[in-house]
Amino acid sequence: NAGVTQTPKFRILKIGQSMTLQCAQDMNHNYMYWYRQDPGMGLKLIYYSVGAGITDKGEVPNGYNVSRSTTEDFPLRLELAAPSQTSVYFCASTKGGPSYNEQFFGPGTRLTVL
Amino acid sequence: AQKVTQAQTEISVVEKEDVTLDCVYETRDTTYYLFWYKQPPSGELVFLIRRNSFDEQNEISGRYSWNFQKSTSSFNFTITASQVVDSAVYFCALSDLQRAGNNRKLIWGLGTSLAVNP
């Protein structure tokens, strides 16, 4: 079980470039999330998905897009990168069921936009 | 509104001291879940504990213990005999059941940065 994997680990973008952050989980979790964490700050939810084909906005969705074509994968797309998107991005997943289970996190992608 | 407050932004202790990290939450749900996560300097987020609102028993895991008090809406975390390896940012989180839909979102506190000095 690899858990939640994210690629790349690090990336530097120029202003205006686009990129996709990859996230995959092999735990058959329905729920997946993208967070960003700015230096010295907490987690902010960008987008989430409750299952394949279903996505919704979190607190800070502007400048990002997501898709969920399979249960396993939940890529995050940055269009027209801006310096304000410099952050560490975490993908997480959790399983469904009657209770609220913990979220499992990927190792993060550190993105710098110059 | 649902909210998680970690009033201590930074704590610094000397190794072997006991330290308590505070977490106060607000919710109108009668059933809810609380979590603690650890983020060491390497950056990953590590799950520590989950507690549901019906289980008010305190939990102990080695040097870690958690005190859940519904009467004061608190879920505090104590590290006994702290070690340098405990240096990390610790986050408290609350289930976000109030919002429409079953999305399993969490409401996160801003974290407490703990530095354990030798």
Identify the notable features of this structure and list them briefly:
heterodimer, A: 114 residues, mainly beta, 7-stranded mixed β-sheet, 49% strand, B: 118 residues, 51% strand
How would you describe this protein?
Chain A has strands at 4-7, 10-13, 19-25, 31-37, 43-51, 54-57, 64-66, 76-78, 87-94, 104-105, 109-113. Helix content of chain A is 0%, strand content 49%. Chain A is mainly beta and 114 residues long. The termini of chain A are far apart. In chain A, the strands form two sheets. In chain A, strands 2, 4, 5, 6, 9, 10 and 11 form a seven-stranded mixed beta sheet that branches. In chain A, strands 1-3-8-7 form a four-stranded antiparallel beta sheet, with no helix packed on it. Chain B has 118 residues and is mainly β. Helix content of chain B is 0%, strand content 51%. In chain B, the strands form three sheets. In chain B, strands 2, 5, 6, 10, 11 and 12 form a six-stranded mixed beta sheet that branches. In chain B, strands 3-9-8-7 form a four-stranded antiparallel beta sheet, with no helix packed on it. Chain B has a two-stranded antiparallel sheet with strand order 1-4. In chain B, β7 (59-61) and β8 form a beta hairpin. The relative contact order of chain B is 0.34. Chains A and B meet through β5, β9 and β10 of A and β6 of B.
